[in-house]
Amino acid sequence: MKYLDEFSDPDLAKKLIDQIHAATTQPWAMMEVCGGQTHSIIRHGIDQLLPDCVEMIHGPGCPVCVTPLEIIDRALAIAARPEVIFCSFGDMLRVPGSSQDLFSVKSAGGDVRVVYSPLDALKLARQNPDREVVFFGIGFETTAPANAMTVFQARRLGVRNFSMLVSHVLVPPAMAAIMESSTCRVQAFLAAGHVCSVMGTVEYPPLAEKYQVPIVVTGFEPLDILEGIRRTVLQLEAGRHELENAYPRAVRAEGNVPAMEMLQEVFEVTDRTWRGIGMIPDSGWQLSQKYRAFDAEQRFDVAGIRTAESSLCRSGEVLQGLIKPHECSAFGKECTPRKPLGATMVSSEGACAAYYTYRRLELVDAK
Predict the structure, then answer these.
(1) pTM of the full structure
(2) Which of 103, 145, 269, 271 fits 259 for a cystine, CB–CB 3.0-4.6 Å?
């Protein structure tokens, strides 16, 4: 706790807030890409301590939230099969599909299990050779190396009853898609530190230059975020658009080279659909041809499942930063953590969940 407390020091936080106020002379809107950063901002009230003209826009950096409805429905179809042990991290079990969630499948007799590592699922496959074991592999670049290593090990060990339902997405293409939208209000980005700890920072300078936006790599503790905001405001005020690394204790420019080599071995880039946003070209990974035998979509023939999004849920607009969660008419009414319309209300990194948990229920609370 000592080291966490150092990054929550109220006196240092006040100094950073004062510096942000002193540096700000005009309105600015910046997006924190990561859902973990969103929760930290809302939990600590950071957005309410900033100058009135500095707006934090919540981005699509929640991997559970952006997993498309059709992928959830494919997971549900696989999990309901009697020969399958379906493994997932716990935050996916309450994400609604078109008619139910994984908890519902489990209560109806499906063998759905929460695991803490994809390697746990591989272990289950080795222990249950007469069952098909499927791991739900979602996430950004942060969780992808462990999933890639698991598939690599399954092939090396000859575990034929293991497969993975893959829905990995990539941050830089999503940032580009946001900037190219006709409704974009984003003038700068706080980039996700954990993603950059894996992939490095090489992809971001071209984005900063192309779209004329500052990009500051930022951590997740209050002082990390405030320092990221301070650096971003200084760039905006000076008319600069550069990459800065405000999280050097975890992020190196070259990233985690062994992890990236494993990703290149197992995955290949593909187009991905983002829930509530749509298809973004080259914004995800799928298993490469060498490892395609471990693709659960092909093994269980569910790739053809297509599902329309809810017309009532506005999570897509939340994920694009077009509205704040409490600006959705269903927020806190038809949509609550107990009866969610979309993943942004149930994910531990969802913006709607953050606003509901930390009582940002009224429109007047917004900056």
Answers:
(1) 0.90
(2) 145
